[in-house]
């Protein structure tokens, strides 16, 4: 039987990243923007909404602290597929695209392979 692997605490990956706070009602990024940074939600709330441009805006999901978001657009050099907003305010760790690429360059080749593979799978699945 395989044991469950617990994720590292966020504090284990803290170094070198900027913390950012957003007040209640703020837009973190908007659907259609080019992705230049990913984020890890440290505290507060983030909700994703999509379909505004088509006049059919709907809530997609709400994140919990510890979850990462905005990665797909940064890894794929794509536009944001949804708008990320905070209802009550939040604090995030801002992971710039340059910093993310630097961390991947410094990673073990096996880890780079898996991240590249998973990124391509997500892109493939999201276009279906």
Residue share in helices? 25-40%
Q: Provide the CATH top-level class.
A: Mainly Beta
CATH architecture: Sandwich
Can you tell me the CATH topology?
Jelly Rolls
- How far apart the termini lie comes to 34 Å
Task: Characterise the protein shown here.
The protein contains three helices and eight strands; from the N terminus they run ββββββαββαα. The chain is of the alpha+beta class. The strands form two sheets. A four-stranded antiparallel sheet has the order 1-8-3-6. A four-stranded antiparallel sheet has the order 2-7-4-5, with no helix packed on it. The longest helix is centred in the last third of the chain and has 18 residues, at 109-126. It starts with 17 loop residues before the first strand and ends with a helix. The model has no long low-confidence stretch (mean pLDDT 82).
Give a concise summary.
The protein has 128 residues and is an alpha+beta fold.
């Amino acid at each position: 039987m395989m044991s469950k692997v617990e994720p590292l605490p966020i504090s284990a990956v803290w170094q070198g990243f900027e913390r950012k706070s957003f007040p209640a009602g703020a837009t973190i990024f908007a659907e259609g923007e080019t992705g230049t940074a990913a984020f890890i939600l440290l505290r507060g709330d983030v909700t994703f909404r999509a379909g505004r441009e088509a006049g059919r805006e709907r809530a997609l999901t709400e994140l919990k602290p510890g979850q990462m978001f905005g990665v797909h657009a940064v890894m794929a050099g794509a536009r944001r597929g949804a708008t990320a907003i905070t209802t009550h305010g939040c604090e995030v760790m801002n992971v710039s695209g340059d910093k993310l690429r630097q961390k991947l360059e410094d990673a073990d080749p096996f880890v780079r392979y898996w991240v590249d593979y998973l990124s391509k799978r997500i892109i493939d699945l999201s276009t279906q």
